[in-house]
Amino acid sequence: LAVTRAGVVYSWGSGTAGRLGHGDVRDQKVPRVIEGLRSSVILNVACGHVYSAAISGTLLLTILFLFEFYNII
Q1: What is the DSSP-derived secondary structure letter of residue 22?
Q2: Closest by alpha carbon to 22, among 6, 8, 11, 7?
Q3: Which of 27, 52, 56, 72 is 20 to 30 A from residue 43's alpha carbon, by CA?
Q4: Considering the entire predicted model, what is its pTM?
Q5: How far is the first Cα of the chain from the last one, in angstroms, to the nearest whole number?
Q6: Alpha carbon separation from 12 to 2, 27, 39, 41, 55 (Å, rounded)
Q7: pLDDT number for residue 66
Q8: Hey, how many other C-beta atoms are within 10 angstroms of the C-beta on 31?
Q9: pLDDT recorded at residue 57
Q10: Per-residue pLDDT tens digits for 13-66
Q11: 71 in helix, strand or coil?
């Protein structure tokens, strides 16, 4: 995962279990914008073996896992 100064999030790598946040399980060889997060300014990101997470300017934590976005306050 990478986040730009403008708060746009890119992901790439293994798409297994939908962990890249693109709504599918395809691998991404080059960085691709996570469209579902475009409406939020993202401050920080983290990722692990089967998840990706993003924290927005409103301090909303979004976890990308199994094709879905889970917002956790």
Answers
A1: S
A2: 11
A3: 27
A4: 0.75
A5: 21
A6: 9, 7, 20, 19, 18
A7: 40
A8: 13
A9: 76
A10: 888 777 788 888 899 999 999 998 888 888 888 887 777 788 887 766 665 544
A11: strand
